[in-house]
Amino acid sequence: MGKTFSEKVLGLKAQKEVRAGEVITVSPDYILSHDNSAAIIKEFRKLGVKDVKSPQKLVIILDHVVPAASEKYALNHKTIREFVSAQKIQNFFDIPSGICHQVFSENGFALPGKLVLGADSHTTSYGAFGAFAAGIGRSEVATLWATGEIWLRIPETIKIEIEGELPSGVYAKDVILKIIGEEGADRANYKAVEFTGEAVKKFSLASRLVLSNMAAEMGAKNGYFEPDEDTLLWLKGRAKDKYNVISSDPDAKFEAVLNYNISSLEPQVACPHTVDNVKPISEAEGTEFHQAVIGTCTNGRLEDLEIAARILKGKKVHSSVRALIIPASRQEYLHALKKRILEVLAEAGCVILNPGCGPCLGAHQGILAPGEVALSTANRNFRGRMGSREAQIYLASPATVAASSLEGKIIDPRKFL
Amino acid sequence: MKKGRVWKYGDNVNTDVIFPGKYTYSILEPEEMARHALEDLDPGFAQKVKLGDVIVAGKNFGCGSSREQAATCLKYAGVQAVVAKSFARIFFRNAINQGLPVLQSEEAVDSIEDGEEIGIDFIGGKIKTSRGDFKFPPFPESVMGILEAGGLIPYTKKKLEGK
Hints:
heterodimer; A: alpha/beta; 2 domains; five-stranded parallel β-sheet; B: seven-stranded mixed β-sheet
């Protein structure tokens, strides 16, 4: 019987034949961390080890609170910079770079067949390029820095086949929200997800990243796409290392195969306070909100900003809305700048923020007061995430957020397209 | 065997309500983390919790972020174990790596009520209540080793020192 992608890639890493359910000890190709590197350094020091075992495997990207919003954050960043310099860590990206998942991808670390572990739950993003990428905790990253090894359980795989054509005004974000709403926040807990089907083969890499990124919101350990010509083209000139495309065998055993047809999908909205509380736009329409966020590792790429600009061009954001635009990385920021997309958005009354995580995790740049409502392109709407526990967060596509910003309440973006 | 008061919660208790994101990079001391435990789920919890208390919850406990402080804050608040119908993957690993036992038992969760006193026998794999015992599979040796050492960092340190 054939094997899934997860069984093959983790078997190669463990140098033995493995099946789902087995526990193996492996050494990842890359280890990602961000502002939490300061806390990881603290744990690493407790191990009594002087040097990082394989500094070339570390990728450290400052993104969560950049530039530093307080003395404490500043001290964290300083600690990290000093450690990076002392340990001769080459793959360090300081505060101008952008959100770790975008920067990691743009810089060619997210490669087919590689094993990436990161101290961030949305490390699943790199499945979009055919990598096995999973989130882990701080103690595990500190241990990896010291020993290079970690135990992993080979996950069962859920295959999600997506067929049909995306209707106008409906995007990758709507597709993944629909899936999470149907399947629930724990459907893929401890499991890997493989996205396949004719519809997603037509998705841009940026759109595939939306699905892989949000696979974490179903509890998934990984959100894999089989690399195709578009993937290889995208990696040309970027790939930091040699790589091998690894695919599931045609007769691989999947835990389940889920089928979705998106041809008649409507825009979707995740309502407070869980990501699986998803409703079609018609049931959320009219909800008033105070802050719009277009950005984050889920939807802060050029194609997202382009959609927003198309809708907002020549118009004004409603006076009751604070619309924040946060490009996912400096590269995306520069593309949007050169294409005059940022100009259109600024003229519409948006606030253009620097690349980074922004207010997504509630640390700075747009914290919500009690009673306030946000409509965001982010991936999480948990109670208190963006500030007050008495605030509410709705999640939607960039088109829905941009269109709704014009009226100060959630509306169907299709009438603007 | 320690006995403790039960704090019972529902499904999908996420890491943001266990330990809010706004503190993740500004609070680095575990004792201070404990003062914010469950702040956005049950704001009174951190003041009232006592050493040895047990959290009992529904499915997918600890879903969301990879922040390990979600486990650290509970441990340092005095919680001796979390019993849930299921745990989110990263939280499950983080809890063990912080030396916080995580026990899975649907039956126990359905039976146990908020505020009651329960005991946990880790060696025998039993949750003891006034209405009887609920079994859970004992931890594998490697996991027990991490829990006994007080977490992955002290466990790894000992291993590296060849003890």
